[in-house]
What we know:
The chain has about 375 residues and is an all-alpha fold. It is built from 15 helices and no strands.
Amino acid sequence: MTIGLIFLLTILPHVAFASARVTLSLFALHLGATPLTVGLLISLLAVVPMFYSVRWGRQIDRIGMYKPMLAATALMLAGVLLAFCLPRIETLYVVSVLAGSGFMLYHICVNQAAALVGRPEDRTRNFSVLALAFSTSGFLGPMMAGFAIDAIGHRNTFLLSAAFVVATLALLYSQRRAMHRLHRPAGNTQPATEIPDKRIADLLRIPPLLRVFVISGLLSACWDLYSFVMPIHGSSIGLSASKIGLVLGTFGSAVFFTRLILPWLVHRVEERKLLIGAMALTGVTMALVPLTQSVALLMAASFVLGIGLGGTQPVIMALLYASAPAGRGGEAVGMRTLLLNITQATIPLIFGALGAALGMTPVFFTMGAALLWGAWYTRGSKVNSKQ
Length: 387
């Protein structure tokens, strides 16, 4: 097992998920959905993982990544094929649950795999490579969805996403032995269902880990909200699906560029200062997005947002594993996923209702203010991967 293989195993399903997510929003709008309905659909991506992500993380610690990754890709495949077979607004609710649950489980698995490849000191490099994979697919997925919708329609775009999931299943099966060898069982062999619930609270009682959870949740929530509100904003000002995909793709290209130079950057800039700068830059830019209707300016703003948010993920994950107790890395990722899913399941719904009532401008302003608060919160803490 190499980090290069994990790179491929990350790109393929994330292209499918990123494409399906954009297609889900634009197809719902095409069918006459309101921003509140779109917010509900996006929220449903995180509903099931909100209840099961910690349990999934514990199970991955015990049995490894291979079988959970197979189950995750099967769920994603079922979701996108259902959207192709039954293209109705009612079906999209089920599609959202299936695709979101599958990808969140897969996300925990590939993070665990990246943490286990090589030596502990290789983790920052591994997570940078993993982040590059996510940013590559984050660029390709929305771009593919936008142009495919204009060329072949919403239904066939879901089918195109399914092809990437099938490719993931084939690659997983061909590398099953390497995946089994990578697993390192945690010392606690007690069944996950018998582990007391208080262990979740134990993780929150670790101050450095709690700070990482808070900062990570804020950044991830704003990232997901931008992916949710940008298609709505673009549709409201008359942009085509391909132009919306281009704007979102510009965000992904900036994320890729930032993560490409991140290994060089983290050796020269303190992690805390890097996080503060990222949140401050993103907060100001987010508030400027609704003030323009130009595609060129929206692409420029998306590029700045990608720079601000793109470099934070590898740093956050390195901090997470540095702060987590030994043998509980998968559980810590699951706990982080739980907290992220709580925000992902509630915030799009809340902001969808706000957008339906007042328009999208207050949504962007609120996101910007939240990020500026995050920069202030990080300024008063001692976030360090060596804690």
